[in-house]
Design brief:
single chain, globular, binds adenosine-5'-triphosphate, five-stranded mixed beta sheet, about 450 residues, Heat Shock Protein 90, nucleotide-binding, binds magnesium ion, Butyryl-CoA Dehydrogenase, subunit A, domain 3, 12 helices, alpha+beta
C-alpha cells in the first residue's frame, strides 16, 4: 500500500500554509467556453497549484482531529489518498517550452472567441456563510518558510484561469501535456469516489472504539469543512476534465459540467420520479405518495444539474419517508407533497411542503449534524456499494440534509427547514441566480 514519505509530508505542510483561491460559477463559465489549447494549458497551470493547496489542507486537517479520530484506519486511508493525489499532481512532468511560446501564453487572449479580452468578473463574498466559516484552522498566513518549492505565484495575486490567445497554433507538447493532466485528474477523481463513505466509516470506528454516542462541534465543523472542500475540488476537477473533452465535441448549453440553461422543471420531475421509485421499493408500496410540482416550463438558469438533482432527491426522499411513516405504509392514499418553484431576480427558491408530521423543535439543530437519523438501524456502510454518494437507500445515514445544504451553499444558495410538529415540514431550497459568489473556502 502507498504511504507518504516524510519529505512529501513536509512539502504538504508547506502548501497547506497557503490559502485556497475561491472561484465563482460565473468565472468558470466565462473562462470555459471552447478553450484553446493555450487556455487549457493555463487552466492546468492554475489547477496544478490550486489543487495541491486544497489537498494539502485536507491532509493536515485529517491528521489533526481530536480525541484519537485521526488514528482510525479509515481516516488514515483517506488521508493517504489525499497525500497520494497531491504527489501525483506536483510530480507531473511539465513540458519544456520555448521562450516564444511562453510569451504567447502570457499574452492576454480573447474571451469566447472574438470579443476583446476582458478580465474575469470578480467573485463576491458568498452570501450564505459567515466569513471564514469553512476555513481550516491551519497556519494559513502564506509565508514561504523555505521548505520545499513554494507555489509559483503568491496566492493573493492568483486569479482563476486567464484565457490565452486562441487563434494560433500551439506546439504539440502543450496538447500532450493537457491530455496527460486531464488523465491524471481522472485517476484522482476515481480514487476519491468513496471518500464520503470511508470517512463515515472512520467516524463509526471511532464511535465504537471510544464509546462515543454523538459527534461534538469540533468534529461537526471538521466534516462540514471537509465535505465542502471536497465539493469544490470535485467541481474544479470535473470541470477541467469536461472542458478538455469538449475541445472536440460540445453540447451547446454546456460549459464543462455547468449547464447554462438548467431546466428546473425537468430536473425536479426526474428527482420526483426517482424518489418515488425508491420509496415504493423500500416500503413495498404499490404506489408512492404523490408529489405535485408547480413550476414554469421555461425556467432555466445557470447551474450544475447534478448538484440540483442531488438536493431535490434527498429532500424529497425525506418528505416521502415522513409521509409514509406518519400515515402508515398500509394506507392506499397519502397527503400530497408539494414542490413549488418561485423565480426571483436574486434567487430561484424551491419549497418542498409535506404533511409528514414535522420534526420536534428540539431536534431541528440535530438534523444538520452528520449521522443524525431517526432510522433505527443504519444500513451497512460498505464503501463499495455505491461509489459516489449515499444515494441508493431511502434513509439512514443522516447525511442527506447536511450534505445537501453544503451543495446549496457552495454556489451561494442555502437550505432551510421549518417544521410544524404534528403536521408537516417545509424545506426551502434557495439557489442563487447571480452566480457571482465565490466558493466558500477561504
Ligand atoms: N421532511 C421531513 N419530515 C420529517 N422529518 C424529517 C424530514 N426531513 C428530515 N427529517 C428528519 O431528519 C433526519 C435527518 O435527515 P437526513 O436526510 O439528513 O438523514 P436520513 O434521511 O436519516 O438519512 P440519509 O443520509 O439516508 O438521508 C431524518 O432521519 C428525519 O428524522
Ligand atoms: Mg435523508
Amino acid at each position: 500500500m502507498w504511504k507518504p514519505s516524510e519529505r512529501l509530508m513536509e512539502t504538504i505542510r508547506h502548501y497547506a500554509s497557503f490559502p485556497a483561491t475561491g472561484v465563482s460559477l460565473r468565472q468558470m463559465v466565462q473562462f470555459g467556453d471552447r478553450p484553446s489549447t493555450g487556455t487549457l494549458f493555463r487552466a492546468s497551470q492554475f489547477l496544478s497549484e490550486e489543487l495541491p493547496i486544497r489537498l494539502a489542507h485536507r491532509v493536515q486537517d485529517l491528521g489533526e482531529l481530536p480525541d484519537g479520530l485521526s488514528e482510525m484506519p479509515s481516516i488514515k486511508k483517506v488521508q493517504d489518498w489525499y497525500a497520494q493525489s497531491f504527489e501525483e499532481i506536483i510530480t507531473l512532468p511539465r513540458p519544456s517550452l520555448t521562450q516564444e511560446v511562453r510569451n504567447r501564453l502570457l499574452r492576454p487572449g480573447r474571451m469566447n472567441g472574438g470579443s476583446p479580452s476582458k478580465i474575469l468578473s470578480e467573485a463576491t463574498q458568498n452570501p450564505s456563510i459567515r466569513e471564514g466559516q469553512y476555513r481550516s484552522s491551519t497556519t494559513a498566513n502564506g509565508t514561504i518558510n523555505g521548505n520545499g518549492k513554494p507555489p509559483a505565484v503568491a496566492a493573493a495575486g492568483r486569479r482563476y484561469f486567464v484565457p490565452a490567445d486562441g487563434n494560433v497554433d500551439w506546439p504539440p507538447e502543450l496538447n500532450d501535456y493537457n491530455q496527460r493532466f486531464s488523465r491524471t485528474l481522472q485517476q484522482i477523481k476515481r480514487r476519491h469516489d468513496s471518500v464520503v463513505t470511508t470517512v463515515a466509516q472512520g467516524i463509526l470506528e471511532w464511535k465504537r472504539e471510544r464509546q462515543r454516542m454523538q459527534i461534538d462541534s469540533t468534529i461537526q465543523s471538521f466534516l462540514d469543512r471537509f465535505y465542502m472542500s471536497r465539493i469544490g475540488i470535485r467541481m474544479l476537477i470535473g470541470q477541467h476534465i469536461a472542458l478538455t473533452e469538449q475541445t472536440h465535441v460540445k453540447h451547446p448549453n454546456y460549459v464543462g459540467i455547468i449547464c447554462t440553461k438548467t431546466n428546473v422543471r425537468d430536473i425536479a420531475l426526474e428527482a420526483i420520479e426517482n424518489a418515488r421509485f425508491v420509496c415504493e421499493d423500500y416500503y413495498g408500496l404499490f404506489e408512492a405518495p404523490k408529489v405535485q410540482l408547480v413550476c414554469k416550463d421555461d425556467l432555466n438558469f445557470m447551474y450544475v444539474p447534478g448538484h440540483l438533482s442531488h438536493m431535490l432527491f434527498e429532500t424529497l426522499k425525506n418528505s416521502l419517508r415522513a409521509v409514509v411513516e406518519q400515515h402508515g405504509a398500509d394506507r392506499d392514499q397519502f397527503p400530497v407533497t408539494k414542490v413549488i418553484v418561485a423565480e426571483g431576480k436574486e434567487d430561484i427558491t424551491i419549497k418542498i411542503t409535506d404533511e409528514g408530521g414535522g420534526i420536534p423543535r428540539s431536534a431541528i439543530p440535530l438534523v444538520w449534524t452528520y449521522m443524525y437519523t431517526t432510522v433505527e438501524q443504519t444500513p451497512s456502510l460498505d464503501p463499495d456499494f455505491d461509489k459516489s454518494d449515499f444515494k441508493a437507500p431511502m434513509a439512514g445515514f443522516g447525511y442527506g440534509l447536511p450534505i445537501s445544504r453544503l451543495y446549496a451553499r457552495y454556489f451561494g444558495g442555502d437550505l432551510k427547514l421549518i417544521s410544524m410538529e404534528g403536521y408537516g415540514t417545509d424545506v426551502y431550497l434557495h439557489l442563487n441566480r447571480l452566480s457571482s459568489s465565490s466558493e466558500p473556502l477561504q
